[in-house]
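Notebook entry, cofactor series.
This is the third protein in the set we're modelling with a bound small molecule. For this one the ligand is flavin mononucleotide. I'm keeping the input format identical across the series so the outputs can be compared line by line later. Sequence and SMILES below, as received.
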Amino acid sequence: MSRLDPTRYPHLLMPFALGAHTLRNRIVHASMTTRLSANRRVTDALVRYYANRARGGAALIVTEPVSAARFQMAPQKVRVWDPDSEAGLARWAEAVEREDCRLLAQIQDPGRGRHERGRNPDAVGASALPDDLSWTVPHVLSVAEIERMLQDFADSCRRLQRCGFSGVELSAAHGHLFHQFLSPCMNTREDRYGGDLAGRCRLLADLVAAIRGVCGGSFLVGIKLPGDDGVERSICPDEAARIARHLTAGGAVDYLCFAQGAHAASLDRHIPDLHGPRAPYVTLTRSLKSAVPGVPVIALGLITDPAEADGILAGGAADLIGLGRPLVTDPAWGLKASQGREADIRYCVSCNSCWAAITEHRALACDNNPRVGLADEVDWWPARVPAAQRKRVVVVGTGIAGMEAAWIAAARGHEVIAFGAGAALGGKTRLLTALPGGEGLSSIYDYQALAAKKSGVRLELGVQATVDDVRSLAPDSVIVACGATMRWPDGWPDAWREEGVVPDLRACIADSVAFTARQGGTAVLFDRDATEGTYASALFLRRLFDRVVLVTPRDRLAEDVPLVNRLGILRRFAERGIESMTLGRIDGGSSLEDGGVRVHNVYTGAPTEIPDVVLLTYATPRAPDLARIAALESAFPEIHVVGDAYAPGSTMAATAHGHRIGNLI
Ligand SMILES: Cc1cc2nc3c(=O)[nH]c(=O)nc-3n(C[C@H](O)[C@H](O)[C@H](O)COP(=O)(O)O)c2cc1C
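Returned structure with ligand:
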């Protein structure tokens, strides 16, 4: 691919001299684990994923971490140290480099860090100190082992170079092994790889020198560093500046990139979400850049919008823009921006479902891109069906599952009419956008709304469609996407429901979104849902009530939420004083009449009183309206039930299901 037209984003789309190379623009694909390799080898899916990001406009791609030293055995990483991987590596490099995009492999080791449960049995580290999250105590690398590791890394870099890679990025951020060596509280060694700043930086400095020794000056070497790791006595911004200066002093490093957080309570900061500001590292990046004049710096972290990226470059905070999640969501982000088609970008919603996927050992996936990893992912638009196969399709429900199916079916040439009960499309996702941290989710239905308009979907909003409404349109095919509602909690008195004194959480939030006046008193949220929407609702309620208590029968909070998000939830609950009562049930023995709620321990039944309760609400597993679905099923021969109406699930499941059915009809 040639240069993108820089007219619209003169900073972002301008070429940039990096080391001995000229990048065609400033868009950098940040390292993202994809789990698209297999048997430690390069696969077609892996090559396709990266080639598509290059085709879509990235000028520099940093791969996921590879296994570059012989002790690295991780099954999800391509084994670069193994000579048998050469053909695959060459294929990978060729597919990306031919798009005029430089490909850098990431060299990294997790050290004592671990995202999964349990200890890391294979961990190596700087010192015999436990990881803050998993409490893994690593094997302490001896000097001889370090030297062997550095030699292996250098040999692997040489192999990468021979196979066509333009360079490597050394990841010393996110609390991984190199970070552990840099940190004064994680590295207490007394040999040459510990002690003062120079000692702690020696591992990386020796590695850069070893790579330069075998690969020469034109091979790009960048380092991802901690800018502020959020760990006491570790790497604060001042220490980060000292480390950056020390490592770049010899002129051997081609660029720096700064991240935040570590393998500790600050882990959530390494993938910032919308509970904080947008582009939250930019101010820090700007000041760290001033500590290393002349060294190119990549800005990274929750930069999702091309205008935002252009502004960061224009303001001089950085030289290049790193995009992690945004390029998962839309590989053609750069291409569309350059063509003035910003509205066609499927934007990252910062939900971190992608992180959940890879840490649960699944391939990378996205809430707002149902086609991650497919061959035709770049700027995908459906192919039209032959005229003889065109159908009239009625969609019941305009949440994200229904709308995804609707716009795709229409873009394929079908005549599509979509009924939505609400005044606006988006279903329950729209409600989530009103909650703290949820605003980005609107990108899902905003994209669908535009695509539906472009492809000619007829929307009938504010209509709770009956079988007769649908029948009157004489459809060939019906898509039922009418969602699901929260179940009344088992054992709760019917009187509470009949009197309407206990609303479900959705109703409660829907009633309160326009309401900002404080209520005072205590709100009790009974949680048998454990999704991010429920925890965000607790934050929302905390704005209105003096006290919010979340009661759950589980033994811990946010168990089903990706670890990075979970840590953020725990932090915010602590900061806002939201209380939680685990192993608790509320049942018919409880009473609301005396103004309190009685919670019983699930094992012993021992009661705890919560006094002065002005709101009791619940979030429970959802159930579809089976009677309504059955009535539609019996009335129409061709029917597809999608999203929560089929089986209550995640946002990702809803868009993926709608996408599949839209393509199937
Ligand atoms: C699913 C996922 C996988 C990631 N994998 C890596 C990785 O393997 N190596 C790395 O250095 N950073 C990794 N990161 C961090 C990103 O490179 C980046 O620093 C972070 O996502 C913030 O950038 P963004 O807001 O543009 O996504 C990963 C992030 C996500 C969400």
